Amino acid sequence: LVQFRNGHVPLNKHLHRIARSPSPHFPSCQEREESVHHFLFVCPTHATHRRKLKAELGTRAQQLKHLLNDEKCIESLFKYIARTKRFVSTFGDVTPPEKKKARNGQRT
């Protein structure tokens, strides 16, 4: 989460800047530099997963300030990141653990 906030997440724009990638573009779409904004809001490769994120969060899914700072959005953000499988080789599975239901039906 911190890497997304400061722009140092291992996406090609950052990796190219530190000489770890030959190109700042995402190999799958080649449309723009693969930045945090591109990954979360633009990349056509992840459009299906983005629709699921929007279904979960509504308009908050379209605002970076909510995705990276709102506690209610962070779990959905990590589900999106996990579904894209973009960081599996770096971080492994980032799917948030399922919340257990309490006896009264409340999630904990």
In short, what is this structure?
The protein is an all-alpha fold. Helix content is 49%, strand content 0%.
Q: How is the secondary structure organized here?
A:
Blueprint: H1 2-6, H2 12-17, H3 36-42, H4 47-57, H5 64-69, H6 71-84, H7 88-91
Q: Would you kindly provide a written description of the structure presented here, covering whatever features stand out?
A:
The chain is an all-alpha fold. Helix content is 49%, strand content 0%. The chain has seven helices and no strands. The chain is globular.
SS-derived structural category: mainly alpha
Number of strands: 0
The percent range for helix content is 40-55%
Q: Give the amount of beta strand, in percent.
A: under 5%
User: Regions with pLDDT < 50 over 5+ consecutive residues?
Assistant: none
What oligomeric state do the depicted chains represent? single chain
Mean pLDDT: 90
Specify Rg, calculated over alpha carbons: 15 Å
Pattern of helices and strands: HHHHHHH
Report the span from N to C terminus.
21 Å
Instruction: State the major sheet.
Output: none
Shape: globular
Number of helices: 7
